[in-house]
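Hello forum,

I keep getting stuck at the same step: I have a sequence, I want structure tokens, and every attempt I make locally crashes halfway through. Rather than fight my setup again tonight, could one of you with a working pipeline run this one for me? It's a single chain of 384 residues.
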Amino acid sequence: ISLSTRGASEAVVSTQSTVSSTATPRTRYGGKTTVTLIPVRNMALLTALRGGPDTVTLIPGDGVGPELAESVTTIFKEMAVPVQFEEIQLNRELMKDEGAFEYAIKSLKRNGVGLKGVINRSADFRHHNLEFRGGLDVYANVVRCMSFEGIKTHHTGIDLIAIRENTEGEYSSLEHESVPGVVESLKIITREKSMRIAKFAFDYAREHNRKKVTCIHKANIMKLSDGLFKACCKEVSEDYPMITYEEQIVDNTCQQLVINPQQFDVMVMPNLYGNLVSNLAAGLVGGAGVVPSKSYGENIAVFEPGARHTWMEMKGMYVANPAAMVLSSAFMLKHLQLNEAGDLLIKAVNNVLNKRSCMTIDLGGQASTLDMTKAILMELDALA
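Reply #2:
Ran it on my machine without issues. Output:
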């Protein structure tokens, strides 16, 4: 099915199903490697029982995003999971068309679930990833950074969750030049949104059997704004006596992450600190290519790589690591209650990374995006 939005430019939209017409094993993904996959249980029957496949909005984004999205759609097709993608080609150039952007927002709201790459800032300095978060009110960004046995890093045993308030703070985009040469930028912190993200963090910790929540702030300097955020976290913590609550100043947090990252469990923080901390933590466990993330609103969930880089200079070369995007898609499957398929895919990616059987250049190897995809398919075949 091909659709297009109205406007000066067209956002190319296609719906492609990854659902197998049968539940029999299939062989594909050419080359010298032959992969025969047995679908998880009986996916055809599962699809029928669910009343048809779930529709997910797929926005590959800029740079290497389309190559990473291709890896996911290939794997989903081979797994025969009951998911169909409404793919929207939306990037830095197409974002100039307001109709294209509005169509993408409507698609995400309609489907309730999205898998998204990163969209570059356009020439007019609009930050489109921010516009998505604001337009959808996906207020809670969750990044999980964990160590992999096969990735050599300075630290081992890291397993932390960075939860970031996604809609205000320094990212409110409220700046102006009051007089020539003097720019004022407004940081917005509200009680309503601080209480909301604090409750989300504690609920997340409780539901995922986490023992500690640390509030990251700079209230020693920004006494009103960060002071309000810290006070809200403290207030919410009193409703969760089973969870240890701590507070830490953000600059000390960055040092502690480098010295002793294992001390952290769940971390909750305002927008800017969340960006800094999640990228730092990603670097500790292997980099942008292995860290997934998800963002939640009241009735929507968007899954994307945890460290938001487009890697424009490598576009079309198929050298990017697809692990982060594939892991994000696996967590999306679990969100859709396809837990067995999601867990199987997570295990397959973990096995590839831990065995060092196929490493892309960011991890010190020479494998391509396609090589990594094949390796994940081989692990799925072995696990099925």
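Residues 92 and 122 are 5 Å apart (CA to CA). If your local run keeps crashing, start a new thread with the error log.
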